[in-house]
Amino acid sequence: ALFSALPRIQEDLKMSDGETTWIISAFQLTFASFLLLSGRLSDLYNPKYTFVIATLGIGVLSVITGFLQSKIPFIICRALAGIMGAMTIPSALTLPVKLFPEPYEQSQAIGTFGGSGGIGNVLGLMIGAIFVKCASWRWIFWFLAILSIPIALRSAFLASAKTSGPQRNLKTTY
User: Membrane-crossing residues (predicted)?
Assistant: First the structure.
């Protein structure tokens, strides 16, 4: 959603062209760097809690980012959001497997999960462009918070007891 907002963000935060690349790169760099560690955290601890904490973290960081007036804190919040984003992926992939043990239901859940990514990519670009055109680039972040905070809270209560308890397996061989 931020691609359409980059010129406005650059103008409002008085960023150079080189600094503007960090808006996207800070998220991608920390996301890629923390993805393996996040997978291990999700394996060691409950994936439900990892998902809820990360989704809630994205929401809180989005609220903060929407209010920022300076480029350095903005880029730092984008980097922190990348870490939170990385924490959601392994746990989000584990939850359907644990919540739907029946093979047919599990395949439907995983298929829905996979299809959601493509739909989210397309809708994110469209919604971001609408916000930039009709309101402000800040609404991209606030809208993300409006979505992610309730999802985190709902996930905390809706994920069944099948996912609760520590998932520690200390006899891992490498």
Answer: 20-37, 49-68, 75-97, 109-132, 139-161
